[in-house]
Amino acid sequence: MALGPRLDIRQSQSLVMTPQLQQAIKLLALSNLELDAFVAGELEKNPLLETGAPVDPAPDASGIDAQAGPPVLPAETGGVDQLIGQGRGEADAPLDVDHGADIFIDDGPADRVAAVGSGGMDPLPGGGGEAIDFDSFANPEQGLQEHLMDQARAALSGTDLLIATQLIGQISEAGYLEANLLETAHALGVPLAQVEAVLAVIHGFDPSGVGARSLAECLALQAKEADRYDPCMAKLLDNLDLLAKGALPQLRRICGVDEEDMADMIRELRGYDPKPGLRYSADRAPPVTPDLFVNPARGGWSIEINSATLPRLLVNRSYYVELASGPQNRASKAWLADCFASANWLVKALDQRQKTIIKVASEIVRCQEDFFNKGVAHLKPLTLRTVADAIGMHESTVSRVTSNKYLSCPRGVYELKYFFTSGVAAAGGEGAVSAEAVKSHIKALIAAEAPEAILSDDTLVDMLRAKGMDIARRTVAKYRESLGIGSSVQRRRQKALRGKAA
Hints:
The protein contains 22 helices and eight strands. The protein is α+β, with helices and mostly antiparallel strands.
């Protein structure tokens, strides 16, 4: 059989991920703030895109639907409020004021903005015709290192200031010294006694307890400043491990005090700050900006997109017509067509994104209506597949919609993923209870326990089963640990210490 080339035509179907489809999928997973950054990049690339809201159409020439304006008042009879409302505030001049002056006596920074915009001298820093950044007038937060260095410059000089600079640079964010004094002395070529003397000066800086090398030393510095550092307190600070274990009888024997004095010393320690440097920490967790608002409405709940953080895009069609009607070659014509198609697609994709988010959020609110009405104890088990089947979408689409997005309701701000939890079988064998609801019950039961009747995990299992939750002991222990709650032994020691301190 001879071999030779042959040309065939075949038809087949295949799923192709176009660039636009990939970008639409990417838009679903972005939060409103991330979407704002994405749109900013598109605005730089595409000249046909612009931000803002559509301009209201001009009134019809026939006068239909035109709003009648207020009558124009003469300056002699019109009041100042009415004249200002008509843009004729200059007609009312009861005061003898020189409006041509640069500034008035009582002018503040906000009153001088008009002078800056009109080409006058910029009386404020950071001018140059740009809008004033009022945030720049606020005092920046001072970090721990800067705060300590300001005190060191006021108290030390020369070699001592150099040593203090080295030591302060090795103080952690919590306020503890992480430097080795002997190595620091060798590196600077100074006696160890001088380094220790400088450290003693730093120990007197604000905040109290800064520069300590251990928790015991940090608490001792604060006790000395409060004039509560006596031999009994020194022995207590030397045996903090026994205090953590709750060995109060042994501590009383070591310190040589009675029960009342021990309770007073423990109460004093609870008033100290174990991490004094954190109060000057510049790291602040950014606030969560919700993407959705859920508010009670008549007969249900209203769901709205947070439009304040959502970019508004428009296609400048007049600019497109102006460019298309001008002279252009084949390359520029193809580029303009691509920009116009890309702009139209992006506007439609953003609109479709909002509709998809609203659709998914509406189904979540419908499934978890008891949570919004009664609280977390009534949260139901919910999966991505359940929501996807209800709204006729793929499970992966629901997963992308609920990623990195937050919902604000009267009960607080929650991530959309929070409403998808596994279920715990009910004691009767019918239905299930959400794992978050079980955690809420465990937290409430432990919070209400009496110091003399600490609830063990077995007791919690029995109490939860009495409420209709069939749960194993190891599951209770896992949920308890995820909530950051200690065991019954640890809680008994903690409450015993609190009782002594109280």
